[in-house]
Write a structure and sequence with these properties.
Number of strands: 0
Shape: elongated
Number of helices: 26
Helix content: 55-70%
Structural class: mainly alpha
Length: 495
Amino acid sequence: PLVDFICFHRAFVQCRFKSCREHLRRFVGRRQESGSYSLEVSPHVERLSEDMVWYLLDGFPRARMMLLSALDEAGFSPHYSLLFSAFRLIQQTGLDVDFRVPSAELLQLLISKKMFSEAREWAKRSGVAGDTVVFEEVTGMIVEFRQGAWWNVLAERLQLWHKCYDAFMRQSNPPTGSANFFLDITSKLEPDLYAREQLVLLAIARELLLMHPSAQDAGSQGQAPREEQLEKLKLSLLLILTGTSLDLTADLDLSPLDLSYKTITSLVHRIPESVNALPFNQGSEGGKSSFGGATSQAKEGQNGSSSVLAVQQRGPRSELLPFLETAISSLINRDELTLADQLAKGFNFESSDQKLAWTLASVAGGNHREAMHILRSGSHPPPLEPSEAALAAAEQSDAVPLLKELGSHCSERIALYCRRCMVFYSVSRNIGMDYQEVEKVEPTKLLSLLLSPQPYAADIELCRNLITGCPKPLDAAVLAEVLASSFVDSMLNQG
């Protein structure tokens, strides 16, 4: 095969490039043929051809492009094919760098010149890890946007975060590192963000974490596992949704709780524009963000590490208290005591509304002793001590006096729940159904049971209280159908 290589060399030196390509293809083909020459000679032939190619590259700089193209076309070596790609890329981009520069160094140079598309292609071609490309691209987008006039327009900023998310999704970046990037952005920009942006950014981080394989749930030492991160994100999203807008809570789908990115983007406009981001991270101990480390740590997440939502060891900051009170009371009014309890515990917040709501539920459910234990628990003294008469009546299965005493101390925030608790207890006694079962039955079904068999003999005041005490307004058409059916049935039964 050396004859073909010598012919190739002579043709190249004489600038007969078409002929040199043919000889080079023939040489590579014969070199790969089994038994065409002795195995002892083969390594010497390959070494000689490699040395000669390097000599030609150094000695004929003006013909490098032609030589590298011929080497790539003939399949001379993967190394020279990569050199050809680097040489062509450098020429196309106008970079001032030698084509033999290490692949990783060329990648960083492309990133520094903001040639992100070329950097991704080069990373794919050279086999260099290119996960940092999208981080740098998105960071550049954010920095550039903050320097422009559109940064002061909330709607445009929301579009920016959506574009950043789309960029990560297009590149199929490791989800954990991408999630940590958004957590870090949320932490660093928190003083400048609005609640709408904070909601979107945390929803993006949660969506990305949900894509992470469960086999890698356990974090390294000093880092929370994935499930703990997801729980913290769930509570943060829930607090923003329910603590900033009373109207929004009434329309949320809470059973099951849907906090997907798609759902959040459909609800974000319901958050008042003027509400600033909730202070989850400001003033945290040692200046460390509770949503994760620096951007570099976010990038490290692609290798398995992850930033965490730090567990708060003390009670919530005073700035969070109004949001917590609003959120917890809103959930209580939706009969979501378990979610309200999770929110209070997640932020180490002792809510008097929550304690009273659980007490009322226990009393109405026939567990007044457990209710008194709940009422007297906690670090704060109970808001009231029920009278002996009310407790004695509860012992005789009459919880009305105790419910009235407790209800008189309800705050305006949970007045709806307190009234509904009393109504449901009265309904349960009226129709002979357990209180816990009454809570699960549709209000229209309860209304139908109250009106049967004789609507004229029913407790109309109780029916009215049932209708007005529901967390969501009843459908007028369904309500009219229930009333009409009850009266028609009673007339038919009377003959």
